[in-house]
Amino acid sequence: MSNFNYYSLPGFGEQCRKEYGFSDSCIIGDRMIVTEQTGMNPLTLKTSLNFDEEAAQAFQNVNDLIVQTLKDAQPFVSIGQDKGWDRVVKIRAFIVCLSSIREQAREQMVHSIKKWCPNHQPLFTMVGVESLPFPEHHIEIEVDVWLI
């Protein structure tokens, strides 16, 4: 396990790494695993009360994390100047109380996937959960990224 390279975003990502002992992403061979990114702004630590805004921030956080991880991984990984989402092959969204916001959540996910992945159609799973570790969070997104 010690030969894997782990990465975190500045702000809350680094805070979690220090306080809780977990990272935001890991590169293993030709694959990057991105853990669940919430809709919280990682620098201000604020989360919108509006689900659509929170989801949009979560997608932005995923992109920022992929781009930052690729930057931090240089020269070990060199795949060009793609946007973060260009190489996402699988998305998993965990949404609190999904049954009560199913239509809104589905519409927001479709909108965001089409926005961030205009040239490909990644695999997608949306799962309803009772709660997330931090009560102000209502969505977490994790992705698998192909680096070749």
Automatic annotation (TrEMBL):
Top-level taxonomic group: Eukaryota
Matches recorded under InterPro entries: RutC-like_sf
Protein name as catalogued: Uncharacterized protein
Source lineage: Eukaryota, Fungi, Dikarya, Ascomycota, Pezizomycotina
